[in-house]
Specification:
alpha/beta; 7 helices; 33% helix
């Protein structure tokens, strides 16, 4: 049985460029360094320049480290930083930064993004890391009924293999989640 409201593509729905965690902590050398950060940043800048206004997010740790987060930070001791530390600053040339959605979680999907991206509209998902925060955000948004487009060259993972594996998982969720290259959106 087919619902008359079902869709297989976004069909011209309004697009929202969501830029996940493009922060110094992931660009600079260190435990959370993402090797292809700068390549993803260039693709994000091109998407932003095409007229899509970015919604930026930041991963900012919760000093209380509730539940399993304490064990997580036991593994990543060097990242036990004050939420105001400069490593959490957004570092993204060519994109105007006028605020961000700050959360202490991998997924950035929540009330703030839900309010900005109504059901039926498309979230164009970019940023880092494909194998963590991108994957978690895409799953949350798809669960909430949003169309999600992950821009593979505007994302970067902890390694090329991890990036590619995450994209394969995301493609399994089609048509709720689709994976494209930036030139598909820019063309």
């Amino acid at each position: 049985m087919t619902n008359s409201k079902s869709r297989t593509a976004t069909g011209g729905a309004k697009r929202h460029l969501v830029v996940i965690d493009m922060q110094r902590a992931f660009r600079e050398a260190g435990e959370w360094h993402v090797p292809r950060y700068d390549e993803a940043a260039r693709a994000i800048a091109a998407l932003s320049a095409s007229g899509m206004d970015p919604i930026l997010t930041r991963f900012v740790p919760d000093p209380e480290e509730k539940g399993s987060w304490s064990s997580y930070y036991d593994r990543w001791q060097s990242m036990r930083l004050d939420p105001a530390d400069q490593l959490w600053d957004i570092e993204l040339q060519g994109v105007e930064v006028s605020g961000s959605i700050d959360l202490p979680t991998f997924s950035k999907w929540g009330e703030e993004l839900a309010e900005r991206i109504p059901v039926g509209e498309e979230m164009v998902l970019t940023g880092v890391a494909t194998d963590c925060c991108i994957l978690a955000t895409a799953l949350g948004a798809a669960d909430a009924g949003r169309y999600v487009t992950v821009v593979e060259d505007a994302c970067a993972g902890q390694s090329d293999a991890a990036h590619d594996q995450a994209l394969v998982l995301l493609e399994l969720l089609s048509p709720m989640v689709r994976v494209v290259k930036s030139d598909t959106l820019l063309g």
